Fold this sequence. Notes:
CATH superfamily of the domain at 271-434: von Willebrand factor, type A domain
Strand content: 5-15%
Order of helices and strands: HHHHHEEHHHHHHHHEHEEHHEHEHEH
Organism: Oxobacter pfennigii
InterPro entries: Uncharacterised_CoxE, vWFA_dom_sf
CATH architecture of the domain at 271-434: 3-Layer(aba) Sandwich
Protein name: VWA domain containing CoxE-like protein
Number of helices: 19
Strand order of the largest sheet: 5-4-3-6-7-8
Helix content: 55-70%
Shape: globular
CATH topology of the domain at 271-434: Rossmann fold
Amino acid sequence: MDSLTKNIIEFADVLRIAGVRLSTSEVIDSITSLRYIDILDKKSVKTALSSCMAKGEEERNIFSEAFDKFFIPLDERLQYLESKSAKIEEIRAQITQEAAELKFNGAPINLPDELKEVYYNLPMEEKHSIKAFIEKSFSGMEGLAGPRLLMENMVKGKLNNLRQNLSSDDYKDWKSYENALSDAGLIAGEVIEDIQNKDSLLYKNIGDIKEEEIPKVIMLIKQIAEKLRRNIRRRELMVKRKSKPDLRRTIRDSLSTGGVLFNIKYKAKSRKKNKLLVLCDVSASMYRFSGFAMQFILGMHMNSSIADTYIFSEFAEHINITAAENPNSFERKIKESKAWRKGTNIYNALDYILNSRFVRLNSSTIVIILSDAKTLDAANASDSLKLLDGKVKRIIWLNPLSEKEWSKIPSLVNFIRYSTMLDCSNIERLAKACSMI
């Protein structure tokens, strides 16, 4: 095998690890294409390989980054790989060391590698909480085998649940570190990191988004919302295919084709649609986040009845969300309201929802709260939230603050008891949270 062919095969490994779907035949076509160009012309080589290896805009972006990092002087590449490998080994050692702190009867808890990394990525408060749970719940049972097994299973369950709340920029499964030990994995990891940095709006803190970046954010939201809609339609189609055939409707439909069963009809399962009730905090620090979040929620309405939407600050006010075409128009409607730039009082908003004769709450209602939980009268707000939780199907709280900052808000602990609070500090996390509604 000549050196050029070997390099192309290694480059293909980089692309696969970075997320490009690449078949063996496409790699062979790539090698063949180089026979018809000047291989000393780097631009021509890049164009030829891209035409064979990259499909779609996302893969072309990955290809371009990978090509520029892979095809460099050999001594530069070796130096880079050596330093990067040392850094990865250091991270793996830290992950193993921190996981070893979880002990029972003086011996480390037996955790799979991927859960060790989940524990490594947790905030310090959450780590202390898990340690305290082990000490308090299993004190005096150190010599018994049964409690140890029970405790390990409970800790694994806790970490598995926490893993669902870690976004892709916080968490990479352990396999990514195993891949990173190879030369291809090291380069692919750098490619993915650079692409994420370039596509920084997806991972940028929503509070730091500038005025001039809003049009790009709106476009990004529309693209992600469309993907969410396609996923929903795909799931609905799969559910439909699992339904039983409706023979009566099928035979009736086949009369137009002389009795040939061209189109099989299925029995539709009766599903009670959920009703969304949205509460948006429109204080000065919250209105922009609320505008972004509402675009995702609107994309979910195909599964739900038309939502009632209320904005609130010191008091609650009904708003017509269907007339808001984008976050900018949503902002304009907020600024025109009497609630604009007032102090935040979640208790008043919840009290209005609970006691207004215009608001109907039942077991099919899902309440979505958009707020950072910084409020006046937090004690009464917590009591009202508890009461609301008993009247509706579920309460989902979308919080624009990073989970690492939640410990700075004392009242937030009580809110978490009666709602599912999700970290929505950037667009990627917000999209993931809205897909769960």
